[in-house]
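By convention, the token line describes the chain's fold. To illustrate:
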Amino acid sequence: MPEADPKVGVDVSTNRAGNPRHRLVAVGDSLTQGFQSAAIFNTPLSYPAIVAHELGCLPDFRYPLYGGFGGMPFNLELFLRDLESRYGRTVDWWEAPLALFRARSVMDRVEDYWERGPGRTVPSTTAIMHNLAVFGWDLRDALSKSADECRKRIDVPKDNLVNQVVQNAGERAALRVLPTRPQAAGALTQLSAAAELGKDTEGTGAKHGIETLIVFLGANNALRAVTELSVVWSEDSGFDSLDDKGRFTVWQPKHFTSELRKVAAEVAAIKARHVIWCTVPHVTIAPIARGVAGKVKPGSRYYPYYTRPWIKDRDFDAGRDPKITADEARQVDEAIDEYNDAITATVRAARKNGKDWYLLETCGLMDRLASRRYAEDPQARPAWWQPYPLPSALQALSPPPNSHFLAGDGERRTDGGLFSLDGVHPTTVGYGILAQEVINVMRLAGVRFFRPDGDTLRQDPVLVDFDRLIRHDTLVIRPPGNLGSSLKALGWADEALDLFRRVFSLL
């Protein structure tokens, strides 16, 4: 059962003297960096940036930029729109060879841009980013990876005619996040970089350099089970090694807890007035792994198999198609429940020691938004479950967004809307929901929010401007016309280019 109280039942007295210079800092992975549709490109609309906008401090909130060819490693939305502009809503059989050539050409241009072209040059940075998240990172990466370490891990690029994806995309992305100057700064991890911001208190009258620190890590300790549709449990040797951990797709809870203790020790040393810890969502809810063949039994949360969303029930072949089983999905969820028990215990222990730490139940949030698992199956709902009330601006959309894979009819969105085209990461309005939940916890902590002028205090309730986010959310207001309800375009791309395996291997 999710923990309903962000204070986990423990009250804390907070030192609020002075005004911390850095109002919001976030460490995390792709969900915090703002990843969408298999690429990092839309960082001005990550959930921390949305929160900073509502705080009134967005002009001072630092985040990396990824211009050029729709970001990295590969922007599925731009790819589908490019195909649509040339071949219309469907690729006919006689156009397939040209479409395949075009697709490979686009992938080659993206690869060249980031490996050999302008994208290879990393801006020198002296100021530390406020959004320190990097896609694909797990607990060990947060502890060990620095700009110096990432440089060492970038291989000499090869212009591979078959595997046309950006090599070492995660490390290349991290170099735009982590500080590189002065020379010693290259050794800073995202946690130690946050610690440097925490020390920045001179002239503020505050004990802490950071007002609110968000920690959202751990999803990548289980996510590959659904992105790769393979469950490989961590072993006692290698789970905490940058060189060896790639063998595993899910961490055993004891290994996760071991890494979490180290992360928590570093976070405890950061001078942040408030710290918000996010729990790990159940990765099996993400629509990239669609349950097929009807639920195992009435009232069950699980389907016999989980496969790609474009493989329909009638076409699914357990002997041929990629899959995980109901038992594997259940075991992954149970492991994540233990991860979240460990995170909750960490927050509770810190509050008992006087630290103003909070728990944001992102796992419970996603469960409440889960369409196929709970919303459409009353028998499967646990006693605590209640549907998540969408903001009025989202309820007014037709249809209101849900957690199905995004679909359209060539003119408009017909389904989905909370997840982007990779079936894992939120759309812009999906990130807005997460931002609203963060804001709710920040207000509970007593954080003040201001109008964009930075001076006019906002009164409760502090609400995310979803009308603004809808205007920026191209997937919700106008999905690619070739997406369709059957997802044939994505299925074709995956079959012809092995696209999803290549991209997800970089996360």
In short: Residues 138 and 296 are 32 Å apart (CA to CA). The mean pLDDT is 93. DSSP finds 19 helices and eleven strands in the chain. The first helix runs from residue 30 to 33.
